[in-house]
Specification:
Chain lengths: ~325, ~325
Amino acid sequence: MIKAPYLLFLGDAPDQLSAKVGQGIKDWRPERAVGQFRMPGCVADLGLPDMSLNEARSAGAKTLVIGVANRGGVISPEWKKTLIMALEEGFDLASGLHNLLRDEPDLVAVANATGHALHDVRVPHVPYPIAKGTKRSGKRCLTVGTDCSVGKMYTTLAMEREFRKRGLAATFRATGQTGILIDGVGVPLDAVVADFMAGSVEWLTPDNDDDHWDLLEGQGSLFHISYSGVTMALIHGGQPDALVLCHEPTRGHMRGLPDYGLPSLEALHELALRLARVANPACDATGIAINTAALAESEAQAYLKEVEGRMGLPTVDPFRHGVERLVDALTER
Amino acid sequence: MIKAPYLLFLGDAPDQLSAKVGQGIKDWRPERAVGQFRMPGCVADLGLPDMSLNEARSAGAKTLVIGVANRGGVISPEWKKTLIMALEEGFDLASGLHNLLRDEPDLVAVANATGHALHDVRVPHVPYPIAKGTKRSGKRCLTVGTDCSVGKMYTTLAMEREFRKRGLAATFRATGQTGILIDGVGVPLDAVVADFMAGSVEWLTPDNDDDHWDLLEGQGSLFHISYSGVTMALIHGGQPDALVLCHEPTRGHMRGLPDYGLPSLEALHELALRLARVANPACDATGIAINTAALAESEAQAYLKEVEGRMGLPTVDPFRHGVERLVDALTER
């Protein structure tokens, strides 16, 4: 568990998009983000108070979270200065970068000397068990996509917020580095050793109250040949009661795979449900989340209506229109 | 690649079954096994010449392969003496044990001092890529099971032998530790990090001659919730042209999962084929391998006939009746 609240490190971010981890934390866990730390040349702005390390410590910040992608696969000397100073000033560090903090000898030395933690959220730190498949108490909803990067994390977080708004018990369960940094805890599933993937998902979504929903962040796609094994482990380890199907309607081919077209929502529905019912025969698909960012509002409305008519499931764009109907479908079960 | 030929270390094996790795090597790669090394109390016997380390070196042996399971999760002091002596006498060591050779400081020290290798085949040693999904040349056949441990490795190795007997080009591709020790090379798929599973299978089955068959050892089962992600990576990374369905007809529940019944062969056929066609639309199921060890010969014959009539695919017990018909189905494609 990463200690909150955070100071969000934006470094010398060349654009707003490169700070999307920081943006995610600010959007979904604003109570954890006391401020932002920007270096000269930083173009990104999360609309948080700019703070020095000292000011952030005074405001209660406990962890400096790297909320920006780095360039060129290295942690630059300029970044390094701030990271070391942060350890010395009393911060833990947290990062989802491919370059691990723990692989930087100077950071390790200062962390050891100061007694502060280096959190590399891409690296599992738990000895996950082999999945047992035993039926667990509580309820679980998993987002599954026709492709990678179609809005599964966003949809899952939005559903958690809607549950909480209604005073209902629900927990976002992060399975990727951005989700883990947002929530402070989770399983970096793509970095888990094959034999323990499904077990790590079981570990992440344990027995719970009967009326509690675990909202499990999906990864990859059953139809994405590079990552389908990860998706499978989520479906079987998560033993979901409900699936929310996620789709981006304008994509020409599977992400990173020019030779592979996207499956239909019908194909995803049928396949994901069949696989989910191996672990939980009571599973149903309960809704559809469409990322219509590439469509005009009228096109988006027409598309959602068409899909809803065709699939017979509540169909929304979570970003544009909210997830009330997706949550209704869960609470009415 | 583990250097052949081998001296097979059987230690103090308490029974024949505990030496099944050694038995597999002797059965499938007899040309690699110059002899067996047995300690006092060893009950297993592979029918190979008993040799001292010296005698085996004189007979050309280059690697001492641990062909036996260990007890109690430790490498005993008695074993250790022989392993250290083997390194000193000029052997490499190879092991598929859960306890890694590399975690034993004395073995590491002697290996470093003598310049000999410690092969822990459970541990990947290649930086596998992310799967690309590009169509590869050559042909591939994958064994898929209704459950774990239903004869996938045996069937795959038997098909390779039959191909070679006919003078046809085929290569067994090992994906588990026993298969790797038998063949000297392969991918320990259950120990590969999730993101790289399918990529490791692509790496294992690269472009090849148009008439060459890669015979890819299956793992797990799409219906085994603990390991289904691994199976999925094999189906998508292997982009098989042909699937051979494997089944054990008397099993009451999925291996290690008392609450889960076995799927029908029809369910396996339909699901595996649908998933395989994401990566290779030309894939077909071409045969069925049944492990009838628990049935009397007449029962086995009746069962095979019944399945063949029902499924419309050549159906054999590879151990009892050979795999000629499974190979016919591949060569006739």
